[in-house]
Amino acid sequence: MAKKKLPKGTFAEMMKGIVESPMTKAKPVAVVQERKYFLIVCEGEKTEPAYFEYIQNMLPRNLLTTIDIRGEGDNTVNVVRKAIAVRDERRKAGAPRYDEVWAVYDKDDFPASRYNQAVILAARNNVKSGHSNQSFELWYVLHFRNLQSALHRTEYIKILSEKILKAPYKKNDPGIAAFMFTHGNVKRAIKWAKALEKTCADAHQTPAASCPHTRVYALVDELLKYCRPEWRK
Length: 233
Prior knowledge:
Elements: H1 11-20, E1 38-42, H2 47-56, E2 67-71, H3 76-93, E3 100-104, H4 112-124, E4 128-129, E5 132-133, H5 137-141, H6 153-165, H7 175-183, H8 186-202, E6 213-214, H9 216-224
Parallel strand pairs: 1-2, 1-3, 3-4
Antiparallel strand pairs: 5-6
């Protein structure tokens, strides 16, 4: 996907231009797709939900309400537990069951045992795990470069700020998701994330020892199947 020329001016002006431009706004299309229900429970309250909400707005109109996105402001094991609880509550209420339940969380600086425990808990309870080591921002970096070094998450922020955005990265900036899709390459990010995962699997590493690594790609790849044709190429 060819990159568009960056708008002139400050980073704030650029973000405003991206969000307001009719050419870059995500618009639902009138395509009938099979109804499938997703639950996405995120560790962050704003950063991850904003990204998935952007993708949600790319869906056909009949699927807009089939994705339940929640930002918990919690971490690892608790995020997985919340995903399990929300799924079970929905079943008890008699509402249509979620076809896919996802927990999205980061390794950050949490103990390896807790991060590994979250991955195991998700697998045992049929929750798909969109975990990242070290953080969700690795997924953003992969939209622009094939990062293979085991860096601390603060380095992801530096790369995003200095090399990609050319301005300070702000976690809760609603324009970041738009920037990833208009200037980054999501299909290439998926390809590079898959390669990182294979490298870690071939080395028989535990989730906590797998760095850099992110399974956000698997959730994004699934969601893009329901979006505009250009994102499915």
